[in-house]
Each structure stands twice: as C-alpha cells, then as structure tokens.
Amino acid sequence: MGKLTTTQKLLPAVYFYLHLNFPCLSFFVKGNVFHIERSLLFMTYKAYVFDAYGTVFDVHSVMKRIHQFFPDQGPFISQQWRDRQIHYFLVRQLMDEYKPFTDITRWALLDALAYSEVSVKPEVVEELMNEYERLLPYDEVSSLSEYHPDKKFTIFSNGTRSMLEPLLENNELSAMFSLLSADDVQVYKPHAEAYRYAHEKLGYEKEEILFFSSNPWDIAGAASYGFHTAWVNRKQQKWPELGIEPTHIIQNLKEIP
Q: Does the keyword Nucleotide-binding apply (predicted)?
C-alpha cells in the first residue's frame, strides 16, 4: 500500500469531530466506521486506473463463440486459454524477452486448443482471436462515469493498443476511458517499470491513484510499486499469501463508494 496523503491521515480526526459535535450520529458512525472510512478514503483519489482483462471486460465472454465451434468445450477451452495467456507472458517477462500480447494470446489459444484435442482450422483460430476485440464488459461498467463524474478513468493493460482500442470502440467505452498499454514500454505488469510508466503518464502522486484489478498478481505488483489498490474479487476467493495486501477488496465495481 502506498503512503497516505495528509487528508487520508486526518480521517480519524474527522470521526472524532463528528462524535463530539453530532452526538446523534455517534451510533450510526460507530456501527458504520468501516464504510465511512472507505468512502472518505475513496474521495481522496483523483484517478481510477483499471486493468482491462477480467476487471472491466469478461475474458470468458468468448465461451459462447467457442461453443459454436466446439460444443460443450467452451468453459474448458476458455479457462485454458486464459491460464496459458497469463503463464506465457509471465515466463516471457522472467526471460526478459518481450513479445506483444497479441502473440502471447495467439500462442495461448493454439496450445489451449491442442490440449483440448480438437480439430482446428486456421479460420477458426482467426475468428476466436477476433473475439478478443469483442469481449463484453461487466454490467456495472457502463454506469461508472455516471456515479463517479469527478474521477479520471484510465485502462492500463498488458494488451496492445491494437487489441484494446477496437475493444473500447466496439463497446462504446472510448469516451469513458483513456488508455495506457504496457506495450508502449514493452514491459509487462507486474514489473515495477510498467507501473512507473503509468504513474508518469497519469501525472498524479502515487497515493492519489487507485488501481483496480481482478488479478492478484496485478494487485501485488501495483501495491509493491506504491499505488493504492482495489482487488475486484468477483469469485469471492481468499487473497493469496503473497506477503503484500490490497488496500481495498470489493466484489465488483458496483461497490466503489
């Protein structure tokens, strides 16, 4: 977790002031300290930065298309595709041999299909790759700017701009989100250099930025760099023992105060 701003440090004093001057609120405050604290803390952030895949967009919305080609294999192939995608870019990062996320995604798909022992035509591979430009956003995404009009929204992803720009356009989200890609510096998250690039581009102090991701490895990387973080725990899983914790845990983006 990053350092606290002066405003964030003053939050306990705010509670004390409310308790002394508005005693009728004391019971409410006492019973809702966590929610009040979180709401006040969220008010101090100037930029909300979101991972794309799994956070804003549902990577498993490809299952319907997969099912059209390989009936009853949609969930298995989709999960294999995603697991291998993450594994392959992490291996590439450890090797210090960068390849664009388009290549990583294609290789992961080819191996997922091979592992599933299905017969594949080249045109099917292209159809499924194109589906990554048509992933569906989670239901709550479209209303984010309506409920948080004072925030700057940015997507920061390992995906290339050639993948992300059509994805935003196809879902009519280009006006809502500015876009940053780790491909611009050819260093994948969760490497610190990737987050440093985003930090410099955003132009805010670390503690003024809140980074959202559904991926623990991404949250850990952002937190290690010094960002405040919000783990979007859609599957209500246990936070892994990584020796570092998210600043906030929410189940979905509707829970942003």
A: no
